[in-house]
Amino acid sequence: MGHLGALLFLLGSLGALADICEIPEVDRKLVERLGQRLLPWMDWLSLEHLNPSIYVGLRLSSVQAGAREAFYLHILKLNYQQSLLGLAINDDNSNNKAKPSMGQLALYLLALRANCEFVGGHKGDRLVSQLKRFLEDEKRAIGPHHKGHPHTSYYQYGLGILALCVHQKRLHDSVVGRLLYAVEHSHHLRHGHLSVDTVAMAGLAFTCLEHSNLNPNQRHRITVAIRTAREKILKAQTPEGHFGNVYSTPLALQLLMNSFMPGAKLGTACLKARAALLASMQDGAFKNVLIISQLLPVLNGKSYVDLISPDCEAPRVLLQPALETVSQTQELISVMLKVPSVLPPYRHPISVSAGSSLEDVLKKAQELAGFTYATQNSLSGPYLTSVMGKEAGAREFWQLLRAPNTPLLQGIADYAPKDGETIELRLVSW
Ligand code: B12
């Protein structure tokens, strides 16, 4: 071990002892490889494909995409402003495109802050008002007695509060109060099980509010809720070290990082999580751009809360596009595709080449007739909205499972089924 290695090891051990969550630096090459995966996505410049999370992730990371970054932000601004403010547009189809959701608007505001801009001027004020209105609507949907649900999710509710907070925009105590209640009574944050991502996002929003002192009357409740969120996340650590699962660990670490919780064995838990993350990175588990954009800040010791006062001058390594190595295989595999929740139930073996994604399996099944599906694009990739003509309703979704009963941790574009596997698509409530 070199001097630096020894120093990092010592810091790591001290972190473990001191109950501080520290994430010692990881191999630069690994970080660069992750960053490179974002580059091709920066060439997709239509509103449907633009992803402000990519921009935020890069700006908080130790890597950069050079001139492409500034251009991407420019296109983000044009598209989001046109779409959200209904500005004059040349493209006749633009009116038909879905408007960015509350969460997407929030991520756009985070992207502006990541470039050290404060939202302002006439247009900026209108965007802030829109986000505030979205949150007010969601607050009403939850209701004063917390019996209802947000139209979107508590995750997006937290994201909305965080975005306004980093721009130093004040929200009414009652808006923040709905999220505080949800963390205090965490059954509201479950999607079948505790959603670590949602608790982490809420915790990040509260941490920003605590630092900025924007809701002084709720200061004590906010401080307690941050601690509750951290404790829930620590409790959700798996034997391998992930918080929740591998893909919720980045946001979980954004919340835990640099925090201090005496007596909670936080230092040890974070070092274990870092080791689990490294193993997953080496296994190639991080394919999804959205998740990569949430992980890159962590590998640079940063979180979304740093957007309160971002360091826009920090040196970052310029990413070089990776050389594509497309390995085509002739080997065929067979995947059993099953949809029991339709009449008559569907069950068919589908033959695809090894390494194909679940989306390839669905496409093939559709070509063979007897199977239909539809997707909607999202920041995480194609989201399965309808199967055999049956569309998921409000608070329902098409769950992806590996038989007999294991929910997949990846979406249809990223998950690659193995030979002989049975994949079930199940319409469930959440
Ligand atoms: C809320 C949520 C859900 C809700 C979404 C409904 C709703 N009205 O919000 C429900 C519970 C239905 C859901 C379902 C699934 N989810 Co989900 N979800 C989230 C969560 C917590 C927040 C998403 C969000 O609002 N983002 C912010 C907004 C602004 O972005 P957006 O793109 O506009 O949001 C939409 C998409 O994210 C989409 N969506 C939600 N989950 C997923 C997953 C995939 C793979 C895709 C393509 C889209 C998608 O729903 C959002 C609302 O429309 C994220 C956590 C995270 N770290 O991102 C996990 C997360 C994205 N989900 C995940 C997974 C695995 C799934 C499922 C595939 C689980 C399964 N086995 O079926 C399914 C999707 C199946 C399908 N039909 O394609 C993983 C993805 C990991 C990865 N490798 O990419 C995450 C990161 C959670 C985790 N830690 O495991 N999810």
TrEMBL record:
Broad class of the protein's primary localization: secreted
Swiss-Prot/TrEMBL keywords: Cobalt, Cobalt transport, Disulfide bond, Ion transport, Metal-binding, Secreted, Signal, Transport
Binding residue positions for cyanocob(III)alamin: 152-156, 197, 245, 294, 383-384, 398-400, 408, 430
Disulfide bonds: 21-270, 165-208
Annotated GO CC locations: extracellular space
InterPro entries in alphabetical order: Cbl-bd_prot (IPR002157), Cobalamin_Transport (IPR051588)
Compartments where found: Secreted
GO molecular function: cobalamin binding; metal ion binding
Cleavable signal peptide: 1-18
Biological process according to GO: cobalamin transport; cobalt ion transport
Subunit structure: Interacts with CD320 (via LDL-receptor class A domains).
Family assignment from sequence similarity: Belongs to the eukaryotic cobalamin transport proteins family.
Entry function: Primary vitamin B12-binding and transport protein. Delivers cobalamin to cells.
PANTHER family noted in UniProt: TRANSCOBALAMIN-1/GASTRIC INTRINSIC FACTOR, TRANSCOBALAMIN-2
Protein's recorded name: Transcobalamin-2
Species: Ailuropoda melanoleuca
Lineage start: Eukaryota, Metazoa, Chordata, Craniata, Vertebrata
Gene name in the database record: TCN2
